[in-house]
């Protein structure tokens, strides 16, 4: 790891368009070839994303990923939806 650190800090930059998303995970202190690109699809249940990741170098270094929404996050999202509804006098 750079500078003998035990952890890396990363930032995500990307776009979401309907059910598809793509993003790059940029690690502080590492060269561009060490930043993986992710492409995935939000499943119809909106609680899971599945897709592939790849690195620019070495060629062919790729794999799959799955992201699952935690139940607490779903509950918070539902609560925000209820709270954002207009209240009648």
Fold and architecture overview:
This protein is mostly beta strands and 89 residues long. It contains 1 helix and 5 strands. It has one helix at 71-83, and strands spanning 10-17, 20-27, 37-42, 48-54, 62-68. Strand 4 (48-54) and strand 5 (62-68) form a beta hairpin. The chain is globular, with a radius of gyration of 18 Å.
Biggest sheet details: 5 strands, antiparallel
Low-confidence stretches: none
Please count the beta strands (DSSP E, at least 2 residues each). 5
- Strand proportion: 35-45%
What's the quaternary structure here?
single chain
Tell me the strand order in the biggest sheet.
1-2-3-4-5
Radius of gyration (Å)? 18 Å
Q: Structural class, please?
A: mainly beta
Order of helices and strands: EEEEEH
Count of helices? 1
Distance between the termini: 59 Å
Mean pLDDT: 82
Shape: globular
- The helix content, as a percent range, equals 10-25%
Fold topology:
Elements: E1 10-17, E2 20-27, E3 37-42, E4 48-54, E5 62-68, H1 71-83
Antiparallel strand pairs: 1-2, 2-3, 3-4, 4-5
Compose a concise summary of this entry.
The protein is mainly beta. The chain has one helix spanning 71-83, and strands at 10-17, 20-27, 37-42, 48-54, 62-68. The longest helix has 13 residues, at 71-83.
